[in-house]
Amino acid sequence: MVSACRAFVSVSERGSFTLGAAAARIPQPVASRRVAALEKHLGARLFDRSTRRATLTRFGRDMLPSAKRLVELAEAMEHDAERARRRPVRLAVPDTCSTRDLARLDAEGRRKGVHLDFRPAPPPLRAELLRTRQVRAAITEVAQGEGRWSVPLGLASAAAPRADTVYVETLRVGRADPSPGRRVWIQPEDDVPHIRDRVVRLGDAVGLQPAQVAVAGSLTSAVAEVLGSADFLLSSPKQAGELGLHWRPIGEIGLERGFDVFAGDGDEAERVRTLLGDGIARCLGAPVPDEEAG
Predict the structure, then answer these.
(1) What CATH number was assigned to the domain covering residues 89-146+261-276?
(2) Fewer beta carbons within 10 angstroms: which end of the chain, N or C?
C-alpha cells in the first residue's frame, strides 16, 4: 500500500508515469503496476489514460490527500527508525577500562550499527545507574563462574617477584617484627563481597594482620601505595601491564572477576553481548577466543 501510494503521488505530481517513476526511483513498468494494483484495491480509476498525460480522475483527486498523508507518515516512520537505530546505547562500564579499549569498542559498535555512550563507574554506581535508568545497559560484576566474561586476578607489585606465584602466607610478619608488613590493596572494582571477603578470609587463614588487607579509596591511591613500597595490588594481568606493574597469580586461591551485561530490556542486553562480546572482553581484560587461538 505504501509503495503504491508513493507511486500514485509521484505520478500525479508530475503528470507522467515516466517522470513520476524516475522521481520515485523505480522503473516505469513498476510504477504502472503499482498504480494499477492500487486502483484494483480501491475499486476505481485514479488516472484518465485516454490522454498522453497522466490526468487524475475525480476519484483520483479525492484519494490524493489520503495517499499523501500515508506517504508522509511512512517517511516519518522511516526517519524515526533511523534515528532510533543511531540513538546511542548509554552503557555503564568499569572505570578500569582504558580510553583506548573503549574507543576501539565504540568504533567496532559503529561498524555494526550500535552507537555507544560510555559511563565509567565503580560497581555500586553502575548498578545504581541502571536501576534509575540513567543508562540503558551496564556491565556488572557477578559471582565467579556466573558471568559471560571472566577476568583472572592476582597480585601486582612494583618490583618483579622472584617466584612465578605469590603465596599470601609469605607476607605474614613475626610477632617480634615491628614493621606493619606488606599489604594487599583491594581497588574499588574488586570491593565486592565475592572477591573482597575471600581475600580477607585468606589473610585471616594464613595469619596476616588485619591491616595487611586494605581496601583503597581509589585505584590511583592504591597504585601510589604499591609504587612507593613492597605492597601488592589485587589486579588483572592486563591492568597490571597498563600500570607498569609485575603480575603473579595467587598461590592459595584462584580469583576471578565475573562480568555480564544487564539492561532494562533483556533484548538490549543480548544484543550487546552478541554483537560486541569480543570488544567488551578486551576492555575488561578477559580472554578473547579468536585471539587466543591465533
Answers:
(1) 3.40.190.10
(2) C
Averaged pLDDT of the chain: 91
**Sequence-separated (6 or more) residues with CB below 8 Å from residue 57:** 44, 45, 46, 47, 48
Q: What is the pLDDT of residue 114?
A: 87
Quote the crossing angle between the two packed helices 28-42 and 2-14, to the nearest 10°: 110
**Separation CA 192–CA 258 (nearest Å):** 11
Q: Does domain 2-85 have CATH number 3.30.470.30?
A: no
Q: Does residue 290 have a pLDDT over 90? A: no
The domain 149-256 having CATH identifier 3.40.50.720: the answer here is no
Of 38, 94, 28, nearest to 282 by C-alpha is 94
Contact present, 184 and 203 (Cβ < 8 Å): yes
| CA 205/CA 241 separation, integer angstroms | 29
Tell me, yes or no, if the two domains 2-85 and 89-146+261-276 fold the same way. Answer: no
Answer for the pair 123, 190: CB distance below 8 angstroms, yes or no: no
Among 180-184, 210-214, 215-219, the least confident range: 180-184
Q: Does 180 have pLDDT greater than 80?
A: no
